[in-house]
Design a protein that fits this description.
Elements (H helix, E strand, L loop, with lengths): L10 H26 L4 H5 L9 H18 L32 H20 L14 H22 L26 E4 L2 E5 L15 E5 L2 E4 L5 H9 L11 H10 L7 E3 L5 E5 L2 E4 L11 H10 L7 H9 E2 L4 E2 L46 E8 L19 E8 L16 E3 L8 E2 L3 E3 L1
Parallel strand pairs: 10-13
Antiparallel strand pairs: 1-4, 2-3, 4-14, 5-6, 6-7, 8-9, 10-11, 11-12
The structure holds N,N,N-trimethyl-histidine and fe (iii) ion (FE).
């Protein structure tokens, strides 16, 4: 175990951090139960889409991961990074999980509760050794809580793809309304220069967010808001899907093979109006909400159609957190306060996107709105480790996915927990994927 230069905190400070990690674990479970509340045994045992697991699998995997990291691995050296067997994601690819023998919903709820009870007993006796990076500040507790939170977002993707009756979303967070961008696609200038991205945090950040490092950026312009349904509809209606020059070779191949001509979940009704569905709610598309359920190729084609491009993830992060006037990296676009559904559209129970500008505080130092929450934003960057990357605590979280196959997404969506949504968090997926709650904003060389 490495001893590090982490400032040795006083007793009370450590206790407070540990207490907050436990609270995060507790909140995670409340949301799991709220999300699965309306579901039947049939809903959770079906494989609704080959891209997704049966929800019973996610639930069992949440319990197995918690058991592994908060029970077994605390008592001895780490033998494996995922529990061998049914809930090991590497043993069983998603498309095959529908044929695994899985318990009933009641059985799975009992397993979740049983593991949690044992964890509470085990951890109340834990000293959280400050010399162990896994235990220091209860990092491993926060990691397990974030893992449950990320699987909740996966479950929400599954529910949006649900076969049979639509999911009766238990909406608990009301969405404020916003205002239209003064100018469609209005941009703000980032002056360029050296900026700091990433983090050295060891209390919550994943290995792929470290280390904090400086990058030199050329000046660029970036959209003030994510691209809206209104702007994207113009691209659709003007035949953007048929203009070869807008698409990369890989994008054109995808568009031709898939036959796609609009974002996922958009349908044109008999009057020629576009409607979309969010869980059990079907509505005309709202021109003021960010476009959602587009893949990387669609984002890139749209950007080219308006003479722009996608931002790199470094540009995205600089636009979200760097204050060029005083050369300071903030934790969040609005400052250093923890995210909440008062500040941004995060934390899942709104079950949809909000209109742009709906959260007046969710604005970055240079003036970009909505960088945290609503929709993940595609960037042009491949998923690689930062300089000096070190896998911690297991390479199967990030490192095994590094390479040019995946594109990085930033900012979190409405379906991302407030405990996960942060400006340094890096998500990744294949450039053809549309099941995630993803949109984008555009950039341009200055
Ligand atoms: C970070 C969302 C790509 O779901 O594959 C869940 C998160 N890692 N369990 C994924 C994750 C392990 C991961 N993503
Ligand atoms: Fe997992």
């Amino acid at each position: 175990m490495t001893t590090s230069a982490f400032p040795s905190a006083n007793e009370q400070h450590v206790t407070e951090r540990v207490r907050r990690a436990f609270a995060s674990l507790e909140r995670a479970r409340q949301h799991t139960l709220a999300i699965i509340g309306p579901l039947t045994d049939d809903d959770v045992s079906r494989q609704h889409d080959t891209l997704m697991s049966p929800i019973l699998w996610d639930l069992g995997h949440i319990a197995a991961f918690e058991k592994l990291w908060l029970l077994q691995n605390l008592d001895g050296p780490i033998e494996f990074s995922e529990m061998p067997g049914t809930y090991n994601p590497f043993e069983h690819p998603r498309s095959t999980r529908g044929s695994l023998p899985l318990p009933t919903l009641a059985g799975q709820r009992e397993e979740l509760a049983r593991v949690r009870q044992a964890v509470i007993e085990r951890l109340s006796a834990e000293a959280f050794d400050a010399n162990d990076p896994l235990l220091r500040d209860a990092y491993v507790v926060r990691m397990v809580a974030q893992h449950e939170r990320q699987h909740q977002e996966t479950i929400l993707q599954t529910l949006q793809l649900k076969l049979g009756e639509p999911y009766a979303a238990p909406r608990a967070i009301p969405l404020p309304s916003g205002t239209s961008p003064a100018v469609e696609g209005a941009m703000v200038r980032f002056p360029g220069g050296p900026v700091r991205v990433g983090t050295d945090d060891r209390s919550e950040a994943y290995d792929n967010e470290r280390s904090s490092h400086d990058v030199q950026l050329a000046p660029f312009d970036i959209d003030i808001t994510p691209v809206t349904n209104g702007a994207y509809r113009a691209f659709v209606d003007n035949g953007g899907y048929d203009v070869r020059e807008y698409w990369s070779d890989a994008g054109w191949a995808w568009r031709t093979e898939s036959g796609v001509r609009a974002p996922k979940h958009w349908t044109r009704d008999n009057n020629g109006e576009w409607t979309t569905r969010s869980m059990d709610r079907v509505e005309r598309i709202d021109p003021l909400r960010p476009v959602c359920h587009v893949c990387y190729h669609e984002a890139e084609a749209y950007a080219r159609s308006v003479g722009k491009r996608l931002p790199t993830e470094q540009e995205w992060e600089a636009a979200a957190t760097w204050n060029p006037e005083d050369g300071v990296q903030q934790r969040y676009p609005w400052g250093n306060d923890e995210p909440s559904s008062a500040l941004a559209n995060v934390d899942q129970l709104s079950f949809g996107t909000a209109q742009v500008h709906a959260y007046p505080h969710n604005v970055s130092p240079i003036g970009c709105y909505g960088m945290i929450g609503d929709v993940w934003e595609w960037t042009s960057s491949d998923f690689h480790g930062y300089p000096g990357f070190e896998a911690f605590p297991y390479p199967e979280y990030s490192e095994v996915f590094f390479g040019s196959e995946y594109k990085v997404l930033r900012g979190g969506s409405w379906a991302t927990s407030a405990d996960v949504a942060r400006a340094t968090f890096r998500n990744w997926d294949y450039p053809i994927r549309r099941q995630i709650f993803a949109g984008f904003r555009c950039a341009r060389d200055a």
